[in-house]
Structures are given as structure tokens and as C-alpha cells.
Amino acid sequence: MNQPLPFGSARHTGPPADLAQVMQQVARGDKDAFSTLYDALAPMVFGIVVRVVRDRAQSEEVAQEVMIDLWRQAARYRPEAGGVSTWAATIAHRRAVDRVRSAQAAADREHAQAAREHRTAYDEVAEQVEIRLDSEQVRRCLRGLTELQRQAVTLAYYQGLTYREVAETLRTPLPTVKTRMRDGLIRLRDCMGVTP
């Protein structure tokens, strides 16, 4: 098989051959017949591909793949289904569309990944800031409670003690602890702007 020429140039070796006969010879593995087929179809194939892909380098690559497909699939060509040029044009168009879709899918994946990474980083920072702000607000609001309210709430909510355990720890009657905790929680709620 002769070395293929760059797309857009062709060897003009004489009058155009009957491409259906050339295709039959290509199907039998005739490399000279493929050179003839290449010269006849490569410019058309490249033209179709470049109109779809719109990038010369990628278009040359896709057009080359189409020509290789024609070599490999020559035995599948059926003259009754249409001319060789039509068959080659169909393959070229499909390959070009596939390349565009593949490139778009890759770009979409990269964009989605970048968005996920950005969102994850933003969400983590936002969450840390929110926790820090909430913690500051809770500490500020806790300072507004009486000493007994602050101790009772801290023991119950930060150390997980029951009302009875809080009462025992503070050596305060259980009803008093319950009342102080209720009053303390109401003041915390109001301070933090939480609606009941």
C-alpha cells in the first residue's frame, strides 16, 4: 500500500475508476486498489469530517480512521445498497459525530468534576465557618444565663447527663434543676433567634 497523502491533496493517476469494482478488489486485500480508493475518497471524507468536527487536526485523525474502516470493512460493502461514495460519506459522518459527542462528553465530565470539587471545598469551608459562628453564638448566649442554668444546661447537653444526674452533681433538688434548665433553654432559644 502506498503511503497516504495528507488530506486535501490527492494523486491524480488517471481517470476515476469504477469504485464498486475497486471496492471488491480492496475486499480481497488488494493494496493498490486501496490506494486508488484512497485517492478517490479521501478528499470527500475529509470535507465531511471537517464540517462536523471543525478542528483540522482532529478532522485529519477522524478521516484517517474512516479510511482505515473502509479498508477493514470493504467486504461488508453491498453495491445494491448504494454507491461507494455514499457508503464512505455515511461512515465519515457517523465517525465525525461520534468524535464531537465524545469530546463534548469528556468536556462535560471535566466540568462536572471541577464543579463537584469546587462545591465540596466551598461546602466544607462554609460548614466550618457556620459551626464556628454557631459555637461563638452559643457561648455568648450561655454567658447570658444564671450560673445554675449554665451549669445545668452544660451538664445535660454537653456531658449527656439526665435531669436526675444533673441534680445529684449540682446537689440541687430535681424540681429546681428542671425549672432552671427549662428557663435556661428558653433564654438560649431567644438569644439564638430560634422560633419555637
TrEMBL record:
One of the Pfam families matching this protein, by short name: Sigma70_r4_2
Signal peptide feature range: none
Domain RNA polymerase sigma-70 region: 37-104
Gene3D superfamilies reported for this sequence: 1.10.1740.10, Winged helix-like DNA-binding domain superfamily/Winged helix DNA-binding domain (1.10.10.10)
Domain RNA polymerase sigma factor 70 region 4 type: 136-188
UniProt entry keywords in alphabetical sequence: Sigma factor, Transcription, Transcription regulation
Keyword check for Transcription regulation: yes
Family (UniProt): Belongs to the sigma-70 factor family. ECF subfamily.
Protein name stated in the entry: RNA polymerase sigma factor SigK
Source organism of this protein record: Streptomyces nojiriensis
